[in-house]
Design goal:
By secondary structure, this protein is of the alpha+beta class. The protein folds into two domains: about 120 residues, no CATH class; about 90 residues, OB fold (Dihydrolipoamide Acetyltransferase, E2P). It has three helices and ten strands. The longest helix is centred in the first third of the chain and has 29 residues. It is rod-shaped. It starts with 16 loop residues before the first helix and ends in a 9-residue tail after the last strand.
Amino acid sequence: MGGGELARLPGRAKRDPRALLKWIGWLLISIAFFLALRADDARRNWIRVEGEIVGFTSNREDEGTQAPIVDYRSPQGEPRRVEGEVASQPRAGKRGDRVPVLINPADPETVRLGTPLELWFAPGILGAIGVVLVLVGTLSGGAAGGGRLPGQLSQKRLQTLRETGERVMARVTAILAQGANATTRAPAHWRIQAVWRDATGAPRTFTSQPIGADPAAYVKIGDEIGVFVDRGNQKVYAFDFSMLPFGP
């Protein structure tokens, strides 16, 4: 790159999969909460009548699971039939069992069974999966922390330096390779060393935050690279890796 400022390179690092897991987990938990509110509203506010299980219908995708078929009478005394939304194995009840049927007073054509399985199965299963995903994303993040690169800055600290620090251009003088440490479980990593001269001409040497991949293919001795320096304390700084594949 011949001493010029680093150009943007392809292959930016992907989002942390642990964060994606937690995001999906919280989304499922939110959906489960919404479904639970709807189920509770139906249980409390819909018209409740008694129905009788007259048969079972098989799930198309799994012939082993069956949902109940229930006959009931509307508040006007008209005979009606409703099929359960949840198929299970073993069956949820038997022929002749009496079960609650809930009818939406605002739309009598909207009907659902009022059994615990019908009301709470969907929010329960989605909520459970969501909790598992959040825990996996959180705990795997904690486990990864055991191999965290020494001196790695937090995303919050990096963002603060980007927003409030002074960005200076320093010239790369060395690429330092550091081996894995069995005691601290820190993996092998690399650091970039660069020198910047302040307004008085005095040299200031910066050593970058650790990099998990060898940067030699992207950064050469003599290149210039941006460094965010804390305006109140020049000992606090972070290299600008936003234009490199191993950013930010």
